[in-house]
Amino acid sequence: MKSTTFGIIVILAIGLICGGCEKEVNYNGKEYTKKMVLNSMIDCSQDTHFIKISESVFVYSNQNPQPIDDANLEVKINNLPVGVVYDHSTNEHRYYRFEASLNPKDKIEVTGDSQSHGYVKGQDIVPNPPQILAVTPEWFTGIKDGISYLRTKIKIKDIPDEDNFYRIVIHDKVIFEESSPEEAKWFTSDIYVDQEILFKDILGTLGETNTSLFAIFSDKLFQGQEYLLNVYIRKDNFSALNAEHYVKVEILSLSENLYRYLRSLELATNGDNFSEPVKIFTNIDGGFGVFGSYTIDQQIVNID
Question: InterPro entries from the entry (predicted)?
Answer without folding.
Answer: DUF4249
